[in-house]
Amino acid sequence: MAWNQDRNQGNRGNNSGGAWGGNQGGGGGGGGVGGGYQGNRDNNRGNNSGGWNNGGGGGGYQGNRDNNRGNNSGGWNQGRGGGGGYQGNRDNRGNGGGNRGYKGNNNYKGNNYQGNNQSQMPMIYYPVPPGGMMAPQSAEAATNPGEVVEPVVNFIKWLHHYISLKEVYHVENMYEDGFYKISEYYFKDKSWPTPEVVQKIVEEEDEQCIFIILYRELFYRHIYARLKPTIDHRFESFQNYCDLFSYLLVAEEPVQIELPNKWLWDIIDEFVYQFQSFQQFKSKAGKMTEDDKNMLRDEDNVWKVTAVLNILMQLTEKCNINAQLEAMANGEPITEDIAGEFGMKPIYKMTGFFSLVGLLRLYCLLGDYHMALDCIQHVQFKDKDLMSYVPACQITANYYAGFANFMIRKYANTINLYQHILGYIQRTKQFFQNRSFQAEDINKKNDQMLALLAIASTFCPLRLDESVNQQIKDKLNDKANRLTHGDMSVYDELFFSGCPKFFSPVIAENTSPFGNSGPRGLQLQVFKTEVDQQRLIPTLRSYLKLYSTLPISKLAKFMDMQENEVRCCLMAFKHKKEIAKADGEDQTTLDIDFYVDNDMVHISDTKIARHYGDYYVQQILKLKESNRLIIKSTMAA
Q1: Using 50, 70 and 90 to split pLDDT, how confident is the model at 218?
Q2: What is the three-class DSSP state of 192?
Q3: SS3 for 324?
Q4: Which residues pair with 594 in a beta bridge?
Q5: In angstroms, how far is the first alpha carbon of the chain from the final one?
Q6: What is the DSSP string of 552-583?
Q7: Do 371 and 316 meet the contact criterion of CB atoms below 8 Å apart?
Q8: CA-based angle 183:225:164, to the nearest 5?
Q9: Nearest alpha-carbon partner for 375 in 356, 403, 393
Q10: Sheet harboring 592-597: ordered strands across?
Q11: Using one digit for the tens of pLDDT, what is the confidence trace for 532-560?
């Protein structure tokens, strides 16, 4: 049977057979002569072959680029078409299988993907496990919850295989690509197979083995993302996270497992998200059933804030991540004396680092902004830092760090962080367009940061990059101008759209201590107090920029205020200007300064001329670095 079961039997080529991995056995028996990672590149071998990693006459990871090879081939990551392979046949001539390469003939949307009246099925590149052919099934094939379609069985077995062999590269491909494509096609509105079913599929007797624990994490995460979790799901997911983190923390020596950085970040990120979701669930006690309320009373230790904080802190301490970051900032090599036995292992090091970002997020959601910034005091917000390994982590860390600085009135820090990360998103957004699940979250964070940046730049008017300034104009329209005129409704609107969803760990069972608005409303009240103090400063600043000396009485007439009120406003301006300085900078953040002598305001222009020499030196250094990298890559090739 062909993968898509072409109704017209067209484009199947000669002697293909075209199941998941191609015909097994032909031309070499049991997967073809010349199998292996690169496949056999001899066009006289491996024809009609298949099986995992079998080249099938020129197949293999890159496929055969010669138009005389690859006929009737299959194998892992092959295009299930002539001249298969991950890139398909580059000469557009591959016979057999009907032009089914990933980027084979007619490209991604070529024959047998959408043509010939077939179902809109995504291309999933995992062959059947050794032991027999499996015919692919449609998403509706499994009506019994215990019945699992063959492609899903196939995926689970290979994922188990690669994790057990610590093949991080293949695990990463399956996790980032295969898992989401299968979820989109087979499990769009239902859950994945239960862990008990998967335990039988992979033939694991121990339900606490690491693969089953990792699968449960994916299982519950999918429920949170696509379905509505029940209270039992919430409890079971928490217990599974406890099992997973205990596996890492209780071990007397480093565990023998490796996972891709993206998966490690998603584990920490989802752990904090599910805790946040549970607290919001608890706050809606009036909508719960009596059974749910009783379960919450009986299981009061589940998703407790102290337990979550304790887990994240232990993960950071296990690998001495703060000591490692401090040594990296000082340019020191990371040795076992600094990192410890566990900290030298990538899984512990990266989990510890991601836990720092998780603590940053958690403290921000709780409203403890000073503690949030203390967690990341050794983190360098640079493109080459550890967080750059996972773009989602980098964006999350910058968002919450900027928001924490925003709430403690360090507006210059917020502006610097948001300008940097918004420019990064703008440069790299094309890499996320093919992954809607990432693009949606990144676009949301982008809009939130633009809203907060508009407020911060009103309170602390620093020069913004042209691209960022243009984004603010495009997204916010006239709201940025209304901010400068003190429109309170715009401040409220932008703050609500830009802030995270706060929660309180101490919530009464039937009533909220914060009234109808909840913790978010409480944070808004704190913010509005700051706005009341800052509201007249933009207007005051605009008048001061026009004069070198200005009597207070005249300024009072301009602002339609009493002289005593103007004096208070001038003092507030002076005070806010000092608070808003960026960390490590002595110079003022504004382009004017002033002092009051009796009834006269003396204004000085503190705008510093741009040092063009420094700009050219920076560009020369960048050019030299680019030339060095080009020469290095040329020599390596």
Answers
A1: very high
A2: coil
A3: helix
A4: 603
A5: 43
A6: HHHHHHHHT--HHHHHHHHHHHHHHHHHTPPT
A7: no
A8: 55
A9: 356
A10: 549-551, 600-605, 592-597
A11: 877 777 778 788 888 888 888 888 888 88
Structure tokens at 226: 């696509």
Global confidence as pTM: 0.71
Query: Is the confidence at residue 96, as pLDDT, over 50?
Result: no
The yes-or-no verdict on residue 598 having pLDDT over 60 is: yes
**Maximum distance among all Cα pairs of the chain, rounded to whole angstroms:** 99
- Predicted confidence at residue 605, as pLDDT, reads 64
User: Which tops the pLDDT comparison, 350 or 135?
Assistant: 350
Sign of CA dihedral 64, 68, 73, 78: positive
Length of the chain: 637
Phi, psi of 592 (to 5 degrees): -135, 155
**Could you read off the pLDDT of 567-581 as tens digits, one per residue?**
888 887 777 666 656
What is the chain's alpha carbon radius of gyration, rounded to the nearest angstrom? 30
352, two tokens: 């510890």
Q: Which residues pair with 550 in a beta bridge?
A: 601
What mean pLDDT, rounded, does the chain reach?
74
Give per-residue pLDDT as tens, 474-500.
888 788 888 877 778 888 899 999 999
H helices present in 502-536, as ranges: 518-534
Residue 398, phi then psi, degrees to nearest 5: -65, -40
How far apart CA 245 and CA 448 sit, in angstroms, is 32
- Say how far apart CA 2 and CA 17 lie, in whole Å: 7
Give the model's pLDDT for residue 462.
Answer: 81
Q: What angle do CA 124, 127, 132 make, to 5 degrees?
A: 140
Residues 6+ apart with CB under 8 A from 2: 12, 16, 18, 19, 98, 112
DSSP string, 82-140: TT-STT--TTS---SSSS--TT-TT-TT-TTTT-TT---PPP---PPPTTS------TT
Model pLDDT, residue 317: 94
User: Token pair for residue 228?
Assistant: 């509505």
Average the pLDDT over 117-143 and give the result.
Answer: 42
Q: How many CA atoms lie within 13 A of 221 on its CB side?
A: 20
Measure the CA angle with vertex 105, ends 103 and 111; round to 5°.
100
Long-range contacts of 385-391 (CB under 8 A, 24+ apart): 386/325, 386/350, 386/353, 387/353, 387/357, 389/261, 389/350, 390/261, 390/262, 390/265, 390/354, 391/428, 391/431, 391/432, 391/442
Q: Give the Cα separation of 549 and 600 in Å (integer).
A: 7
